[in-house]
Amino acid sequence: MSSIDLFSIATGSSEPIYRQLIEQVRRFVAGGQLRAGDELPSVRELSQALALNPMTVSKAFSQLEAQGVLERRRGLAMVVAPQHARAQPAAERAELLRPTLERAAAEASQLELSAAQALALFKTILREGNNP
Amino acid sequence: MNALTSAMSMTLNARSPDPAPTAALTGLHLAYGRQTVLDGLNWALLPGQVVGLLGRNGSGKTTLLEAMLGLREVASGSIQIFGEPVATLSDAALARIGYVPQQSDLFDWLTPTQMLDYFKSFYPRWNDAKVEGLLSKWNIAPGKTIAKLSGGEQQRLAIIRALAHEPDLLVLDEPVASLDPAGRRDFLRELVDQVLNRGTTVVFSTHILSDLERVAFNIAFLSAGRIALQAPLDELMETTCRVSGPVASVQALLQSRGLVALRSTALGGGRQQVLARCAADAQPPGSQGEVRVEAVTLEDLFMGLTQ
After folding, report:
1. In this structure, is residue B66 part of a structural domain?
2. B275 Cβ partners below 8 Å, 6+ apart?
3. ipTM
4. Is residue B153 part of a domain?
C-alpha cells in the first residue's frame, strides 16, 4: 500500500508545514493506519507529490526518527518503528487531539461561549462525520 | 575559471561548513532620481538555498533581482556571482544562471521551437529531453507564433527557457503571476525537481504566499531598501508571535521574556498589538492574564516585516 495519499498539508496556517507532517504521521501511527515496518514515501516522493521543499520533508522525518516514531532502514527508506505494532489505546490517541482542542477552547472563551455551547457544536461537527 | 574547476569548487563548497555564497551583494545603493530604492543592501544566497523574496508593491524587488544579475547599474556596492564580479561574469558563469523576468520579451515573432533553438546556441549544456517533455506536458504548441500564445503559455515558455540549460542559480521574478492554480502547481513541482536533482540555488519573488510556503525554505523581506530579515520560514513562524493587551502589560511581558518588537499597532482604549520575536532557540510565552499571545501565519509576517 502506498501511504503517500495519506498526506496533505494546509498553507496559510500558523503551524509550519514540517510540523503538520509530523503530527499527521503521529496520528496515523497512533490510529493504526501506519504500523511497525510500514514504509513511508521517500523524501523525494513526498516532496514531489506535495510540491514541497525537500528540506521541509526531511526535517519532519528526522524529527520523527528522533522521537522514536520512525526508523531509518538501510538506504533511505523510513519505516514505522517496531514498537508501534498496533494502534494506541483510545486514551492515548485522544491526547493527540489536545493541542487542537486547547486552541479551540481558547477561542471559545474569547467568544464568551459556555462549555455547553462549545461542546454542542463539537458534537454536531462529529456527527456530520468525516468532513475533510 | 572553467566549468570543471567551478563545478569542483561548488562540490567542495557544499561540503564545507560555511560555503561560499552563490551570490553575494554588499552595500548596494540605487536610486531613481531622488527616490532611493536600494539603500545599503546586503544579501547572500548560499548554494542550494531556495529563498523567497517578499516585499510590498514598489519596494524594489524587480530592481534588486535585475541589479543582482548585472542588468541594472547600481550607484555603489559590490555584487559577486559564483565568486566573480557581476559586471565581468565569464561565459562559463553566465551559462550557469537561469532567469525568468517579470515581463518576458520572448522574441514574439518566432515560434517556441525557433526561440528555444536560438537560445540553445548560446549554452554549452542544453537538456533537449527536458524541453520536449515540458513543452508537451504544459501543452505549448511548438509551431505557433509566440505572440499568439496566451499570457500563461508565454510565462511557461519563459520558465522552460530558464530551465533548459540546467542552471545552478535560478532567478525568478513573479514567475507565476499569470498561471492558474494547476499551472502554478506544475511549476512548483518543476522547481522541486530542480532542487532535488541539481541542488540549484533558487531565488524567487511572488505575492502568492501559499506557493512560497511550499517551496521556499528561507524567506527574505525587502523593506526600505534593505533585506530587513532573512531566516528559515519554520523558524520565523515558531519564534514570532502576536501579543495584544493593555500597553503596560504587553510591554512588561515583552521585557520579561526578552521579546523584540518588530511592529506595534495601537488598538485604542490603551491597548496595543505587537508582532514580536524571541530568540531562535526559545519559544514564545503563552497567554497570561489580560495579555494574549498568538501564533502567526506567513501573511502576518508579511504584513509586519514589509512595512
Report:
1. yes
2. B240, B241, B242, B261, B262, B263, B264, B296, B300, B301, B304
3. 0.84
4. yes
The pLDDT of residue B242:
94
Q: Residue A44 and residue A55: Cα distance in Å, rounded?
A: 10
Interface of B with A (CB under 8 A): 50, 185, 188-189, 192-193, 195-196, 209-210, 213-217, 233-234, 237-238, 287, 292, 294-300
Full-model pTM: 0.85
Show the low-confidence residues of chain B (pLDDT under 50).
1-16
* Of B81, B99, B94, the residue nearest B172 (C-alpha): B99
The confidence score (pLDDT) of residue A87 equals: 80
Q: Which three cell numbers stand for residue A127?
A: 456527527
Alpha-carbon distance of B306 to B59, in angstroms, equals 8
Which portions of chain A are predicted below pLDDT 50? 1, 132
Q: What is the pLDDT of residue A20?
A: 95
CB-defined contacts A:B, below 8 A:
63
pLDDT, residue A89, reads 84
**Residue B156 belongs to a domain:** yes
- By 3-state DSSP, what share of chain B in percent is helix, strand and coil, each rounded to 5? 35, 30, 35
pLDDT for B51: 96
**Cβ–Cβ below 8 Å for A14 and B237:** yes
Q: How do the residues of chain A divide into helix, strand and coil, expressed in percent and rounded to 5?
A: 55, 5, 40
How far is the alpha carbon of B233 from chain A, nearest alpha carbon, in Å? 8
HSE-CB of B3 using CA atoms within 13 angstroms: 11
The residue with cell 513511508 is A40
Quote the pLDDT of residue A131. Answer: 54
Domain count for chain B: 2
| Residues B227 and B43 sit within 8 Å (Cβ to Cβ) | yes
Class of domain A4-88: mainly alpha
